[in-house]
Structure formats: C-alpha cells, structure tokens
Amino acid sequence: MTDEVANTPEPIEELPENTIFVFGANKAGFHGGGAARFAHQHFGAEWGVGDGPTGRCYAIDTMSGWDEMRDAVGRFLTYARQHQELTFWVTRLGTGIAGYPVTEVSSLFARHSGNVVLPTSFESH
C-alpha cells in the first residue's frame, strides 16, 4: 500500500502510485459531471464503463437505484479485498446527484478492508 491516509483527501488532485480513485457513475458510463468527469479527464476512466475497474479508477453505479448501488458497493469491496496491493480512495459517491443520505451510503462500507480509504463524511456516521 501507499503512504496511509486516514481519509480520502478532498479535493483529490493526484493519485499516489498504486492508488485507485473510486467514484459514483451511471450504468452507461457517461462521465459527464462531478467525480465521474474528473475520473475520466484525469485518471483514465473509460467512457462507457459504469461499473468496475477502469483506468486508475473504480466506477460504482449509483444511479440505477438503491439495490443496484448496494450490490455494486459489495462487488467493489470484494474486488478491494482481492487487491491488497492497491489503496482505494473512495469519494463521497451516491450523496451528490444520486441523492442518497450520507448515513445510508456510508453504512454500505461498514465492512471495508484496510486498503479502502473513506471520505471524512462517511467515517463520522
């Protein structure tokens, strides 16, 4: 893992080596705004990839309903456990355009592995 940080930096301006930018996306992978756009412009998130690893990123579908987002977070957490050589900086996904309360979204990450770094707002709930 890279130098450990307590929480995902805000704003993220660059990624240390072996660090992955985790952002909320739509299923179609149209990265037109927010963290998705930033991921596409700066960290290689591929247009058309709305769920899973892409570039130096990991996309989580936050726009297809609660159940899909919950399942996508579960897939991400499994992926992170399988890739202990990487550090994953999770953004405040699901709480912006998708509109879910921080308390609900942060609960999905309750059983995250040590290589998953959460935003301060997720840790306080």
What does this structure look like?
The protein has helices at residues 34-43, 66-82, 102-107, 120-123, and strands spanning 19-25, 52-54, 57-61, 87-90, 116-117. Helices cover 30% and strands 17% of the residues. Strand 2 and strand 3 (57-61) form a beta hairpin. The model has no long low-confidence stretch (mean pLDDT 93). The protein has 125 residues and is of the alpha/beta class. The protein has a single domain (21-123), classed as Leucine Aminopeptidase, subunit E, domain 1. It has a 5-stranded mixed sheet with strand order 2-3-1-4-5, sandwiched between helices. The protein contains 4 helices and 5 strands. 37% of the residues are buried. The protein is globular and about 30 Å long. It starts with 18 loop residues before the first strand and ends with a helix.
